[in-house]
User: Fold these one by one.
Assistant:
Number 1:
Amino acid sequence: MVISREDIESYLQCEYKAYLQRAGKIGNKTEYELCFHDIQKKYTSQVVQKLRQSAEIVSVAEGIEIDTNIVKTRFNTIINGSITVHDFHVQVEVLQKVSIPSKVDDFQYVPLIISYKENPTKTEKRLLAVVALLLEEKLGYRPRYGKIVHGRKCRSTKVQLEAFITEASKVLLDMKNIWTEHLEPSFTLNAHCKICKYHDYCRKKAIDSDHLSLLGGVRIKEIKKWNNKGYFTINQLSYAFRPRRKRIRTHNDRRPYRFELKALAIRENKVHVYEIPQPLIKSNVQIYFDVEGIPDRNCYYLIGIVVVSEHAVDEFSLWANNEHEEMEILRHFLDIISRYKNYTLYHYGTYEITYLQRMRKKVSPYTLTIIDAVLKHCCNLLSYFHSHIYLPTYTNELKEIGKYLGFNWTQVKASGIQSIVWRRKWELTKVNAQKLTLQQYNKEDCYALITIKKLIDSIIYEKNMTSSTSQTVYCDELNSPSSFYSQIGEFSFPEMESITKSAYFDYQRERVFVRTDKSIKQSLTQKIRKKKRKKLKPNKRTEISLNICNKCQRQNIVVEKSISKQTIDLKFFHSGVKRWVTHIDSHVYKCLDCKHTCIPEQYKRITSQYCHNLISWTIFQNIVNKESLQQIGTNFYELFDIALARTVIYEFRDYIYTYYKSTYDQLYRKIVSSDVLYVDETPIKLFDEDGYGWVFANNKEVVIVYKSTREGNFLKEYLKEFKGVLVSDFYPAYDSLGCKQQKCLIHLIRDLNDDLLKHPFDDEFKEMTHDFTVLLQTIVKTIDKYGLKKWHLHKHIKHIKDVERFFSKILTTDFTSEIAIQYKKRFRKNTVKLFEFLNHDNVSWNNTNAEHAIKFIARHRNSTFKWFKSSRIGCHLKLISIYQTCCYSEVSFLGFLTSKEKDLLGYCQN
């Protein structure tokens, strides 16, 4: 069988296209294919002619069979040769002889292909690799590289083939299955379909089967993943969409594209809004622009502009006859934009932005400033359809969305691909009709943008005015399945929903069993009675009286009426705790002299029914025992017969946050003034976002800070007063700090151990690891015996010399293994920071102090933190800081809270 370059390229572009071609399926070639086939044919003949002219006639052969006998010939160039390997008879455009020794002789033949395109494509590089494999099979050696002659200047590019060989082997195997065994590959649409002669056939087949590849931008991996889950059609995929709780995102967060919601929009033929987008920037002038170019050449020849202001609509069409006029239409474009001050520049996709960014590299500094200003006013309308709005169209292409909205182009076949054909025809014929067609198409693209902007505005303001039409569905109005219930979310019939509700435990207990079971009826009655707040019996009564008027300070006062309060607290004993209720009596007094009504100040200061010990117990249970606020309320009722609403417990937490704010500030001042500081960070998953907790600790105090990212930019300001030694891991954010630093050697030991287990036979790396381990073991033995004292660590200067010898050996050795070279760079970078602890007292060689505090955070991470919002977690971490400090100082956290002290450092010392 004969396989041409076109056959192999067809397979590389689309496996199914190669199958249809082999099966003899007749397709209608697109204008694009016809146009560029002629261009490729003419270009090939020109290049071949040049090859003939550049070589001697006797050294050129045409149309010969390539086999081992070719070694005996004197041909330097072979044109349109053929290779027969097994069942393959492959045509090869050009082979050139190069002076590279092979297994057969002192030269090699390397493949050369010809392409009219300005830049070599990946398909052409893979094609070279396929030819190289066939040559290896036939001649006994594989060419190391191939050549591609391309572009108008006939440049020759060398392509190293090793990177494409594995893929080329698979291509030959699959093509053999298609050509000899007629195996049909899996069907899917791809980007090549737009210019393929089988476009109409495959498109109809995909629509008839409701194929998933109709969705624009979907990858084959995603289709396979959905197929494994049982979704084979767009209709089936639409049922996979579930509205989820929205996360609070920053402005720069990229929202994932939801193909399931796109499928749902297509199924229901309605616009679905996943999330209301931010309103478009209001400006006095709206400018819509569209750029046409030839991607292969990276040249731009047409800019269409439609300017919409309050009083008029202006149109501009900037045309470049050739690449030399590109700068001229750019200057004209910038002149038009510069006429307006308050404007927004609307475009669709990134092509226009890419154009401006490429052109800014070619202009003067003055023009560069103007382009930067223009870029700041750009608004990409396509981004709204990627993250917020889902239309019932297969793709988000401008033409498809425009047609859905009722906008029609003059040319039926109008598309970006077709515009390239029109431009090529104009370059060949210079017929003015082709130019007018392109300008009309470009202008209509700008008017299509106006239609799309109106849709976006209507969706935003329609929702805000709460008058949505039946054609628009807002996903926040859809029922979201709850994670707390196991019932079915949707029902085929309303009767099913009624039956399901009747099976709930509470429903049956309160509506069914209560009618027949007296014990259940009695327990439910008692439950209702218990929920009512009881009047608690006081343990103590006290009276607060007043002797003089608060205003005039005279004693001529009389009692006007009696008032009373009741406070609830906990009283702690040596072996237990007891509820303690205090009844407080007082009076409202009236001064006979100034007629002022007054109440004792001591009585007025009692603003809450619940006292400090009870609140402290609540916080202790929440932080230390990780009990939820709901569980704490239940425990209070069971243990102390105190009924607390959840809102009241929230108020407890706010009270403690405020009360101990000065205590946290005291810990921070102590931390930054200490001689050594241990720092580490850990991820925290919250209700509305994922952030990081940063732990700062010395030997006695701990401070924890919450940040929404892992970026360490805040460290310079936060630790600007710290002058000691910072002990940390190898996270690069710490390297920017100006203080002395000690890297955690335990982290380094772990990394060395893990990599040594992965490279057990690397003798260089094994020796390096052994030397470092022995050195550190010697130092650790001294520390175990004498502690972290500089005098002992410097004794006889033994350890200092050992460290110097180790670094001298590592940094002067020329390693050959990749992992050893990698660690050599790491040791060189951290030479000063690995053994800084030898020069100080009480500076540890590891970061265990900070890691110990992180362990407690990790225990909270999966139980309590997930219910916190980012606005509240900072205060909670401050209380954890106080608790951790109490633990480091071996002091009772509950004892500190109930003491009402705010000076934690003084409390720990006493």
Number 2:
Amino acid sequence: MLTGEPGIGKTTLAETLASEAASRGSTTLFGACFDGEYSPPFWLWTQVIRSALDTEHGENALSQLTKRQQFAISRIVPELEISDTEDETTAPHDERGRFELYDSVARFLVHLSSLAPAVIWLDDLHWADDSDLAFLEFASQQLATSPIMVLGTYRDTDVARSTPLARTLGLLTRMRGFDRIRLAGLAPSEMAELIRRAATVRLDAAESNRLVERAAGNPLFGREMARGIADSGLDPAAEHRLPEGITEAIGRRMAGLSDSQLKVLQTAAVFGPEFTVADIAASAEEDGPVEATELALEAARNSGLVEELASSPGTYRFTHALIQETLYDELTPTQLVRTHARIAKTLVAGPGKSASDRLSAIARHHREGVLLLDLDEAIEYSLLAGDHALATYSFSEAADHFEWAAESAEDKSDSPERAHVLERLAVATERGNARDPQHGWDTLCEAVRMYIRLGLNEDAVRLASFPAVIGGMTGVVELIEDALKVAIPGTIERGWLLARYVTSLGDAARPDEAEVAFAETIEIAAEHENERLRARALVHGAQVWYRANDPERCVTRGLEAIEIALRLNEALSVLRVIDFCTESLCATGRGRDALELIERCRDVRDETTDSFSHLNRARYIISLYRGDWNRIDSILADLPNSDRKSNLVNWHAALKGLRLGMPDTGLYEMLDPSISKYAFFDGYHIAINILATWLQVQSDRKLLELCDQIYYTDPVVTAEGKIRLRGLSVLRSLQHGTTPETEDITALRDSSSRVIPRTDVPLERILGAVSVAAGELTEAREHVKKAIEFCRDGELWPSLAWSLLDLIRLAVHSPETVGRDAAEAAASEALKLCDQLEMPVLATKIGEALERLPVEHSGHAGSNGSAAYPDGLSEREVEVLRLLSDGKSNQDIADQLFISRYTVVRHVSNIFQKSGASNRTEAASYAHQHNLV
């Protein structure tokens, strides 16, 4: 990316680079952004595609696409005139359709670059609209491995944090191969040389220095001021004659134009960055011959204000955007309205008024000149432009057109026409307003209810079933209930609406009502023999019971949904439920079943859905439960670069650090709800895991305060969420040394889940700790044994190691409840797991617990009942002591005895305790004193 202030030389440098690339055999493609009001949707990439088709390899690259892919591209390049013969046209609000368009354009560019390396020059990205930037984000990932260089320019002075480009730059910055070069301007000596060459009158040193100082390193400013002096022939020593800024400098260049010629240029400035002689002549304030317009533009060209496009004779553009801006700003509001109105009439009367790349301009000029035009006609063109923007997935622009049409209509009472406008506005707003999804949903609700008031019940049901994002929205249940009142019983349309009702009731923590809606949906699916509806109902039913903290029912419905979806090759249904099923299987101790499920679904792909939130998320969950850190690292490494990937990598690194005994002080900030952005979905899942793990590893005041913040501020209402927070609450109380709330303990005992939801901490472990705190040691032992059995069966290895530590600690606390032999066996198994899972912090805790085991409960004796070795040393401990006395390290001893290093640590700890030695030297002396070596 080349960035800098206006006039600093970004475009000149980019043009030079593109020319150099072309001279070396590369294909150079070009697209320029215009001020958003001037551009049709997807205009930047439409220009790139057109320039690609004009190259020697363009037709060849296009021919390598399928007919369907060519048709997708023709939606934004209509002159291709390709009919869709393979499949029905995708609905304009279908996310799959947007992916199809993006993927087709990206594949076209990839094919083109395979024939010759390509440079794609994108000029003035600060004016790019949402659709252009969305594809840039998509293409940057898809083209990363192709011989393509994307060269963008933008004004950094026009990019605030809230602008669309700022977000895109944030994503691109994290991508491999991204670079940003800020042009800082010319040095004084370089500027002096530029001014000397631009001026045709001789400047003395003092005057040259004044110009250099005023230009402040900006080449355009310096050149314009120097030319202003040269063109006017003024005395260069007369300082008051020098322009004060670039506007005055451009004004100098216009000084040689007549009033009529200046009016032609002002009309062109209102028309847009590019214009034809015919259009400007037809839009003139006074009728005159086309030749007069040609002469005016020729004079402007000679003054360096405009240039004629070599690829399109008769079409001009301004040589710099600042020139157009200067001309536009000099017009009064009245002049602007009149000029826009004249241009609107010209475009409507001219050829190609329905061409897709002119609709936006026609609508814009009608909007700006509406005071002098027919309002109904202006509204009609806004609707046409909105429909085109919607069809090319330029949702923000479509919403702007539809909203203007809806607000401008004189009659705002209910009518079918107004309802249809509101529907289009609802679709565009919902799809394009990612920063405020509630606004999009509210617009959709307004349209649905207007349909109901008008008695257009089929339209109401259809729109209420629109695949909008409803998670976290308010008013969802109420709207669907309104639509259900007018839906015809038993119809397939009612069935699809009921399926949405099921999931919305689940979100609202109303599972019993969801069951009633689910049963009716299944009945309609059976009546119509519609397997897709049945699969969708099962997906939503599984989600309901996941949120209701009933993993068994979630798994039952989810697995049936996946079976049907795999049979129908419906990837979306599989992906919507596989992560819930995986977590529920793990939560019920069926980790191996979860692995088998993921393996069965490994080839399922749906590129229109998020790359992490479904199949990869399921892989992440099972890897987390099993402690497969390398697998998690691989999953995260394969994600496309984005803010989400960056956040997930940081979260996982923090969690892994805790497991490895290397906590990061930055965790406090990561877990603070007032600072962190984890509050929804992926990050929250990992945040809860971090809290649960941290509470096991260590405890401090600040951590406990964070637990309180999450517990008391979390807005969850689902049963799954409540159990999650109750589990954390009990863990927090145990660490703080306070008595857990009775209702929390009761909820954990009654939970259908076997773990704290979204963690790998078994509830039996927590109940065991509660029993220890209450002095109920026998009950505690049973809870711990159940936790160990559950973890072994489910192959939840990190949790198994922690549960074994619980058993060892119970033996320390109550030798009568758990014998030393059982504790040592548990320690041996746990230390092996620590070695395999790289969990040294847990291994240290196990060693500390072993040191506290009472010696009198060792139980080591010879065959006649007397101790075989002094002080109750076991045969294995004597073997270790002998090697220790020889100066062997723990690793040497482990290798020689074919045991783990952590097992050696345990034996050495026992030797020190039984012999009374405090170090290895004293232990060796003890061995010699007792003739053990």
Number 3:
Amino acid sequence: MKLTEFSVKNYRFTLIMFLGALTVGLFALFTMPRGEDPETHAPSYLITVVYPGASPADMEEQVAEPIENKLHELKNITKLTSDNYDGLSVIYIEYTFGVDTDEKFQEVTRVVNSVRNDLPKELAALQISQWSPLDVSIYQIGLISETMSWADLKNKADKLKDKLEKVQSIRNIKIWGLPEQEVRVELNLEKMAHHHIPANAVIGALQSEAVNIPGGSIAISNRKFNVKTSGNMKSADEVANTVILANGPKVVLLKDIASVTLQYENQTHITRQNGKRAIFITLNQKEGQNILSVEDEIEPVLADFSASLPPSVKFEKIFVQSESVKERLLRLGTDFSIAILLVLLTLLPLGGRASAVVMISIPLSLAIGLTLLNLFGFTINQLSIVGMIIALGLLVDDSIVVVENIERFLRSGSTPFEAAIKATSQISSAVVGCTILLILSFMPLVFLPGGAGDFIRSLPVAVISTVFASMLVSLTVVPFLASKLLVKHENPEGNIFLRALKRGISGSYSKVLDRSLLHPKTTLLIAGLIFVGAMALIPIVGTSLFPKSEKPMFMVNIRTPVGTNISATDSVTRYVESVLNKEPLIKSFSSNVGKGNPQVYYNVLQDNEAENIAEIFIQLQPVDPAEKNEIIDRLREELKFYPNAKIEVKDFEQGPPVEAPVAYRIFGENLDTLRKVAADIETILKETEGMIYVNNPVNIQPTDLKVAINKEKAGLLGVASSDVDLAVRMGVAGLPIGFIRNEKGDEHQIIVSLPKQGRTPDLSVFDQLYIGTMAGNSIPLKQVADVRMETSPNQIRHYLKQRYVTVSAFVKPGFNVAEKNSEIISKLENYNWPPEFTYQVGGEQESRDESFGGIGTIVLLTIFGFIGVLILEFKTFKSILIVLSVVPLGMVGAILMLLIFGETFSFTATIGMIALVGLEIKNSLLLVDFTNQLRLQGRTIEEAIRESGEIRFVPILLTTVTAIGGLLPLVIEYNQLYSPLALVLIGGLISSTFLARLVTPVMYKLLPPEVSEG
């Protein structure tokens, strides 16, 4: 090969080039962004619309449907859903993966803006956001105090926020659990009646004063001057002095007919840390940042701030993502060191000098692979490091084959210089072919569709980049080093380790091979029965998608009946806190009542605000996954019977977001029928063994108060329906009409309402409401409207514009999700579905279908790629069939290994099976190729088979053992995400190495291919 010859002859140039590659690789190692998980870019967007006082039906009709109709016209949409609640609509849109996420965000923004004029004018908020793993808080900080006022806590939090905003690598600093101040205008109806002032006049006067209209600019001589107008009101006193009525000398100010105060709003998000009153501060990092460098910037700021706090406030770093990143990187770094040591031990039979040449290829290959990974835009995270560790066991294969061949030439009398060039050139096509096969075997994982593919992609890219680099190194640097370092062995049979290995092979393998060749059909029959037996174990092994997270943290979700106020939900939360306080292994817990905990895990979004929900984020002392599961199970038992509340203890899970492992979407337009069908499906799930946390969101219909207007009477009295609605809004919730902005720049909303006797108004409020007529009089609300109770849906959901509801459940430990799913689906098939009602399977099965849905085409292309490489190598289809016969044999060991370790065919185990194919074929290719060479040298078929089996067993065994040595730390350290992949590869390599060494020779004897020169 010209490349090898050039590299050896111009060794100084080769040395400089690869020292440069090593330097660039080290630079990439120290400068690449580090994170816990890959930076995925899902084309998913949320549109959140807040319309206070609107029912789910109103939100559906007035908000969701106009937006959905426009969005549905867009291309490349895979999901379009809307969840409509009281006063809230959340619309989710997802495009096919691979589109430009920024461009699609602009597209969604344009569409929503185009429909804005068709939406109600009274919307309180309309926000468009893009889902991103960067939304995960890298820090969650608590300011804990039972005594400090809200104003002082806000002041402290704002100071910290101001300091953190100066750190360039972070973004989106938020304060949680702090009630906002508002200007509360409580109207005195008697005084208003005395002055003959209707509520509309008060509202109109305040709205006109709250508007800030810029004055523009004027020119004087050659200068321009901006004209400043009155601007925003700046204080509650200014609001109180607003002129409501001026009639000659009679001037009525707002304070004459209302109470105007600056006070805190009713708290809608209550936060506590370890049961104590607190507020939370979270921050996110910018894209492309190294989380460890970000920590170095933030820590001095936090240290200075915490030192400045008074004793009445406790500062606590609740969650710091970089701590788990450092721990994981340290653990994987240890695994890497162990893997290198194990690889070194497996190279002992090659001898010290040869092992040194092979070992030098490791840092060079890794450096080039890391550089390529950086150029492709990937980060250093748990999956890319795992990819490097997997590659570590594979990248020495090429170097071992090259060095072994060079030594063979040395033993035949060639000089080191000649041996390096001739031996490498002789085997270069096989090295390139084996590398291409390895790359092809990992290629389907690069092109996995959907969120799962995006999540896992850095792993196969790391393997491919490093293996490709190892091929370059083995054809350039390794020959050059071999020409300088290798010498002829004193013993032509090799060192003591190699001689012992050869004796072991000839004493065991050779005898078994002879028997197999005497009874070829029996050998194939036994191998076939072993394969069939292994396949029969697949149902016992079971399937799953992604495993639980191994991180020592989990969540408790609390749901009280719809309509429950926040005080009652808080009472349930305090009970759960009392239970958590008894658990000695719990390090801390963060309570959120009325809203979910700020996002601290990449696939768990923060729950929307609602008075009947609470969430407690729990962190444990360092424990293994088994201990964490015991704590979760114990808490589930203790909390499952709490009355009038659903308390769910849930672990975090790996992979793309899934609402629940088992979920079924039920479609139908009639809400009453939909509710009945959902109740039936809920019953089916509850009666299925192994189901927990069965959730039917429409099983309870809330009771609302309906203000029914008598249209005829209202028309006769000159009362507009909008005036009735306005009065009800003002009396019940308060009517927002503008903002004040103080000297510090803080905005406070102005709320006009009636005087309240307690935290929330009661039924007596309707007796106080008066409506203005066109004649200028005021009449009681009850004169034109009745207030009565009626039930209404608590939510209305759409999936691709169809009404639906999702009934879901979790699965108890010890039960297989896929099996339970199949059992429930068989029951659903026998269910008597109403006309025009259908169902769709969601949860893990849908996620699995999406993850592997488009892989069929990729696998087919890979198979034909394999065949193409083998055709170029052997030129005959018989040889291809012999080489491919090894594939089923690897599955035997993979299945048995999963069964022994109690693992299932998870997502990563499945991709391990795909990657295993290339490793198996590579070894088989070497055996068949050498057998063909021996036949060309004049051996008979049986002689060639026996000789190649014995001679090639050594390099095949060495490369297999080095691969297993590289993978073994991933099993020892044991991570539920990637250890199953390592188990599959190790088990498959073991079974294929030993079984294929018998099956491949037997297949060769039964189907001897034609051989020819060239």
